[in-house]
Model the fold of this input.
Amino acid sequence: MQRPRDGRPRLLDRIRARPGGRLTLRIATGALGAALVVLGLILVPLPGPGWLIVLSGLAVLAVEYAWARHLLRFTRRQLHRWTRWLVRQGWAVRALVGAAGVALTGAVVWTSVRLSFGVDLAATAWRHLDT
Done:
């Protein structure tokens, strides 16, 4: 049992020490983490923090599950590799990656609005530009 500097057991260690506490903690973290991962995956194609919510769900799952800790470490390593690579690139590559991100976000927004509300944003914008 790890203890912080003041010598008291950590909250999670106190929960695990109670009868049924370990099982309760595993069920609660599993349910909350899974809900966050599923919500994040639903939100990934939409503009917003979908991947951040997925990673938050993995962080919650990593409290109790080794596989989630490994997956979270792997994901963080890959993200750091990607950002270090991008920083080393010239302005043209970074601009191309940025433009691709903007185009992908625009396509996701257009598709979401088209499927959700039946409105073609491109055609509507084109009509407004013609007038």
